[in-house]
User: Fold this.
Amino acid sequence: MPTAPKASKSRAKSPKTPAIRQAVVVGGNRTPFARSNGKYANASNSDLLTAALDGLVARFGLAGERLGEVAGGAVLKHARDFNLVREAVLGSALAPDTPAFDIQKACDTSIEAAVAISNKIKLGQIDSGIACGTDTTSDAPVALNDELREVLMEANRAKGPADYVKLVGRLRPSQLVPEIPRNAEPRTGLAMGDHQAITTAEWNISREAQDQLAINSHDNLAAAYDRGFMDDLVTPFQGLAKDDNLRPGSTMEKLGSLKVAFGDPETGTMTAANSTPLTDGAAAVLISTPEWAEAHDLPQLARIVDAESAAVDYVHGHEGLLMAPAYAVPRMLERNGLTLQDFDIYEIHEAFAGTVLSTLAAWESEEFCTEKLGLDGALGSIDMEKLNPVGSSLATGHPFAATGARLVATAAKQLHERGGGRALLSVCAAGGNGLVMILEA
Amino acid sequence: MADRFAQIVQSDIGAKVADLLGLPKPAQLRRYSPGDPLVDGVALIGGADGGTLLDEAASLLVSAGVETAEEPSTHESMRYAAVVYDASGITSSSDLDELYRFVQGGIRSLARNARIVVLAATPELLEDGKHRTAQRAIEGFTRSVAKELKGGSTCNLIHVAPGAEQGLDAPLRFVLSGRSAFVTGQVLRVGPATDTLPATPADLARPLDGKVAVVTGAARGIGEAIAETLARDGATVVCLDVPQAGQSLAEVANRIGGEAFQLDVTADDAPTRLVDHLVQRHGGVDVIVHNAGITRDKTLAGMDDARWDLVLNVNLIAVERINDELLSREALNEGGRIVCLSSAIGGIAGNRGQTNYGATKAGIIGHVEVLAPTLAKIGATANAVAPGFIETEMTGKMPFGPREVGRRISSLGQGGLPVDVAETIAYLSASDATWVNGTTLRVCGQNLIGA
Assistant:
């Protein structure tokens, strides 16, 4: 693989003080996202991820090329997919000697992968890499009932006929009910939407504001498709060319007629329209040194400047499940000497419209910012025109592990298109995790 | 859609049955693969006195290692794989018998899949009236010979402008080789000569080495074959198609080590985006193949604006706009090649229900004629290829009757393959075809329609 000779020479001269290099986003690719049990009902995570990688390879003419590393994963994984990413690489047009590893951090999976790849690049360990993620709720792993599994495991350890007889006595019809993965927190038993409903109510986010955010997301995404913005971000898969969750041209009246999906049926504000549906899809983003991109005559859309993780204690009710980014952002701003208003684009993952609006409300709250974040005052508000300008998860859908890579590529391309600027990326995740990132062009 | 009939009559039993019933017997055509000899056997070569092309032709055959003979053999078992005759020296109609006698000598001992090639001076450029008439007569002779040939053999005529003899190599090599399997009964034109001399590719097995090519409509069918063929010949291929075709486009691009570029060529900003991409990614482009095309058939009485506009926009207007942008930004490299897809049936013959399509495909012929003189100044060329009945997904969906007729009414008695069109485009794209400019070449097996 061609390496910039200058960079390697200077590293060789002063190995003790390696300069931190730059990591740039070259471009991205994803499959269109499909609503669960629809177009991709028969596609596995491996199929989806391989397609996303192949589309990326084709876009940048990298067939047969060895990259430094491919990192990514899926949230809902079959046991056989223990090496999902490496297997997808082997099935893709990339050189088979491209290393790969799996990570899993719920909805932060592929943005965490982007951090991993960019850190390796910045440290000089690799020159290029792909961060990626995939998820399907249509081909989700269905596990044996835990009790039945225990019986079978003991049968495996049994020494003689007597043991088997004893074990047969432990079999019950109820054990035939399989264990289906649920979108619920293990420690609270609450669905993610139920958690968000608590937070949404706490921050007094109105139904109208959430519905308006959903309408904007759909309209922005539709406009992006119409003007060809998505042409080099998406490659069709299995006959689907656009996200099939996309519903442009909706109205407040239409969305206002929907029933409450999460929270109190009477006073709740969260509906199917202002919450993301279960979706299948995969996304990938190519990251490299500027020199590698230049040597391959490839674009450099934006630099990955910094990233920050946070987590919140949602178990004991101290904070909302999806509020971790509210904590991560001020720490990252502080480290980079920036204010919340110093950005041209805000790409905030729309797990629920309520999540985005609660986070923004928290940053506007003097009380929250001083008491919870320990700041002198409120971070303030942002220009809503700069929020998710080409739509986000409410419109595209949200295959958990794919969302981070989608965000990184989308934000980088927007910065490049406007000829420079700075973007703030934020992705909340299950388990009270959150990860935020700064891109600059 | 496989041509089952051709497969059956190519078998031993099938051939016997076809003979009994008097059915046509389409031959299995000799198609090129890298490493093949230029001519698979002995070439009979000759010419009329005073001709200007025999030396050039003979030295090409010698350098390609082809065994040649100047007199028909007396051995009955002798079979010629090629017959090459330089008729440019025939200056009066009374001397045309030399041509008839020489080719007759060859045709009586012809191998299967043989090549008959007649070389002549471009009649329109001759000043002497008798000379011009005689040279013009040759075309009727070769077109008729092509219709008499069997066993996959072809007959073509090459018109060379006076002074452009050095440009003969590219078309002669093409019609002799397996690359021209489905080209017969045609006139290939060379010249006039320009300041840019034809350059024989350093490696004839990879004539497009180091070149960057764009192929529109590359996701499937003929476009896919063009992309594969140009890549096989050494080019880095930017495969372009509408975003909806992106999945198969990516598969094609990855298979040939090229790039996928999803773009609707009719979008307002399509020319800008394409040229931006080519300049930024490759510093320009060497070959652009305008293959993307659609049909929206309706007789004129029932035609509507949507059908008319869509076909015009995709097949002709987008081609003009992209070429304009390429040229105004000087993104077509020196020695560049523009190849556009016309249509033998729609564009040359005209076709019921295809006033829109026919207009665009005839317009393409005009477009390359218009571009040619401008491009010649930078050693570049623009040519069109007009396919006849080609076995594709599209023709596979035709009703049985018209499909069978479409196949059998050509001199080769079968439909062509996408690769036949692709090989013709590869020939026009190479650096030695510099003096082939502004022409339209049919790849149709000498179909009766669009002659």
Notes: Chain B touches chain A through 29 residues (CB under 8 Å). The mean pLDDT of chain B is 94. DSSP finds 15 helices and 13 strands in chain B. The first helix of chain B runs from residue 4 to 9.
